[in-house]
Amino acid sequence: MVFKLIKPAPLTEKVRSQDGCIYLYRAMKFIGWIPPKKGVWRYVYLIWTLTTFVWSTTYLPLGFLGSYVTQIKLFTPGAFLTSLQVGINAYGSSVKVIITYSQLWRLIKAKELLDKLDLRCTSREEREKIHKVVARSNHAFLIFTFVFCGFAGSTYLSSVLSGHPPWQLYNPFIDWHDGILKLWIASTLEYMVMSGAVLQDQLCDTYPLVYSLILHTHLDILKERIRKLRTDDNMTENENHKELVNCVLDHKLILEYCALIRPIISGTIFVQFLLIGVVLGLTLINVFFFSDFWTGIASFMFVITILLQTFPFCYTCNLIMEDCADLANAIFQSNWIGSGSRYQSTLLYFLHNVQQPIVFIAGGIIPISMSSNISVAKFAFSVITIIKQMNIADKFKPD
Asked: Do the strands 361-362 and 366-367 form a parallel or antiparallel pair, or are they unpaired?
């Protein structure tokens, strides 16, 4: 079966939480982020890593700038906006790639920490939840792949069929004006460079979602364990206290997991929050005022791509905050009445720690949530309103 990881594996198979990162890490290995640990192939692989960073992380944003400096008069308004909306995002993408790659060790360490959380997932219900989140995480990555590749492919084809390269990057060696063959060659080279950048950007945008989905599931599992405390009449008071201590230790592991991924998420999401309003505004202006049918399709795919970069993760952050509130309620409503003083003192300690919600903050400034995401996205509509009121779009339209 193709893409078998997007469906929950049967319970007869051993599945770990970190299996939800399989597609993510395969893509990282493909783009040059995870080299072999030793051997001659490690050095060959590092050449590939350097190649992807030179072309997709460095040349791409500089190529946009070079085209604006040398060829600004050759752009039509629609082609310029198609290039500009991606060009601005390319600079942000390069920053996100540098942040993610430089702190990739955090993601690897957090992934390994999941094995410790899996040790207590022995019941059928808990294993079912692990199987489901593994499939959901890989499925989410696959959806992102199709959307991101759809944007790059649709822009490539629609632009070439309209008679110009998709992003018109600065290329001093090939002049696409010199005939159809040169146009296709220049466009294909741009598409190859952009495909690498798109995959890098996708990795920066999908790892927060994948890691937060797994976090949400483990919080849900912990919540159910708390609700079952002191419900088995066959367990002694010492055994009940041990179960409570294990729940405290599970929560401690979850907090350690969050502490590992929090700095890297803070940086990449902050960059995306800074970009989303401007980029989305430029894209919608292009769609409403300058696009024909084919470029409209490409721009629409880009809008979906921009929205996917933050909205799913922000929604998951809301779920995680709700999980923290539910944990506190579950502890308070658990069967603690009639327990010993040692059990109650441990329970109070646990309740105090759980009441501090797990919150991710972009750049140490903006709490990551749906309300924050909607607030920064609203700037796009402010840009469109200004363009309409000043009739700027009409001034750039050809007579």
From this structure: antiparallel
